Amino acid sequence: MATARLAPGVALVTVPGQGLAVRTPDGEFLRVDTGTAAPDAVVERLTRGHGSPGDTGAQVPAQGSDSVGVGPSAPGTSGTQGTPGTPDGELERLAAAFDGAGYLAHEGDGTGGPLAGRTVAVLGDDVLTEPLTRFVRAEGGEVRRAKRLTDLPGEQSPDVVVWCLDSPVPQGLWDEADRLPADGTGWLRCHREGTTAWLEPLAAAPGDVTSADVRLRRLAATPAYRELAAYWAGSCTDDTGPAHTAASAALTACLLTADLIAWAAGRDGARRLRRVDLRDLTVDEHTVLPVPAVAPLTR
Question: How far apart are CA 211 and CA 200, in angstroms?
């Protein structure tokens, strides 16, 4: 029989004078009606996971209310263990109710993490790609390392490409990658300009924000657009740092991993441009929109 215990993020709380409450992973507190079962026995049953709750006919904890009221079994039903109305029967009904509400985890359930089943191609500088690779694998994703976009075989194309640079982006380097979302491949990137790391939004579908969109928006937002364009074109002295530290690289990799997790979960976060100040690790963000296509000027 599979072992079942409280799911990660779920906790039982003994409230003086009130009995038991359950704290859900979202931080909501629900009261638990333990019936004839002793609260200590309920805690032991749901934390040590003796046995596996089955279909008992017990009422499932009500979502969105302030109680987890487990009423008596319907006539003619019984728990998997114990007699209805007895402490053992109450324990099994409570266990089944917690199970039905998703508050129990079973041995061997393991989902593999939020990036399970996703293939992430990682390109760029080791100071960023190494922590990113660790974090993606820790979240269940499969990582493919590459030096160039052309190193990725078309018949085994990744779900998303992440490109990390510890330097400004050379002119035209990301032009080909900007076309990935049109083919259904996710596209996420970051780079450093002086003491600032820029994390651009993940593009996953036609019309999402690309690197070219970000450049145009940044040029439009500064009076020094000629100077910025020249800087991007390489008309400047060598960048002598400060480069990423272990701390700033880990922070950047964490933020990129969070973007990947949001993308894998289908959450919309595709229009957020973030800046990390490498001197004090502060992060700010700005909404950025794609630049509409326009017809060429005619003479």
Answer: 7
Going by pLDDT thresholds of 50, 70 and 90, the confidence category of residue 65 is very low
CA distance 38 to 156: 56
Neighbours of 19 (CB within 10 A): 14
User: Other CB atoms closer than 10 Å to residue 163's CB: what's the count?
Assistant: 24
Rg (Cα) of the chain, in Å, rounded? 26
60 in a structural domain: yes
pLDDT at 293 (0 to 100): 79
Q: Chain-centre distance of CA 93, in angstroms? A: 34
Q: In which domain, by residue range, is 190 found?
A: 119-287
Dist CA 60 CA 298 (whole Å): 68
pLDDT over 70, % of the chain: 81
Please report how the helices 225-232 and 211-220 are oriented relative to each other, as an axis angle in degrees rounded to 10: 150
Residue 285: count of CB within 10 angstroms of its CB: 12
Give the number of C-alpha atoms closer than 13 A to the C-alpha of residue 199, restricted to the C-beta side.
26
Residue 49 pLDDT: 45
Q: Check whether residue 260 and residue 134 sit in a common domain.
A: yes
Count of domains for the chain: 2
Is residue 160 domain-shared with residue 276, that is, in the same domain? yes
Q: What is the DSSP string of 185-201?
A: -EEEEEEEETTEEEEEE
Mean pLDDT rounded to a whole number for the chain: 83
Please report the pLDDT score of residue 267 as a whole number: 85
> What value does the mean pLDDT take over residues 279-293?
92
